[in-house]
Write a structure and sequence with these properties.
Mean pLDDT: 75
Helix content: under 10%
Strand order of the largest sheet: 1-2-3
Order of helices and strands: HEEE
Low-confidence stretches: 1-16
Shape: rod-shaped
Structural class: mainly beta
Number of helices: 1
Oligomer: single chain
Largest sheet: 3 strands, antiparallel
Amino acid sequence: MSASLTVLLAAQAIPLLAGERTQLRQPQRAFALSTTPGTFGTANRHFFHGPGFNNTDFGILKRTVLREQIAFDLLIEFFNIFNHAQFMNPGGNINDNGSFGIVTNAQPPRIGQISAKFYW
């Protein structure tokens, strides 16, 4: 690991309050400051991970029987019904200074769909 990368990581180690966490401002950890090349650090195995995932889907189905052999279904579905922001993992390529440790995309927002079926 080069010295310039270590300095870059130290410059990005900004403590953030809970309200300051946005898509592009995730807390950076200066995990490479006290290690020397060729030695093991003190970080645990899975310390670099992304934000939490909170997703709730909802669906409702109404079947109406018109006659003995004829029926009609109406299905309404919502994905991510509470519209929580679901950010993807931050960039993990340590050689990419532009996106390392930065969240650049997210899952889609609330999606709804209506479908109908006619049985005969």
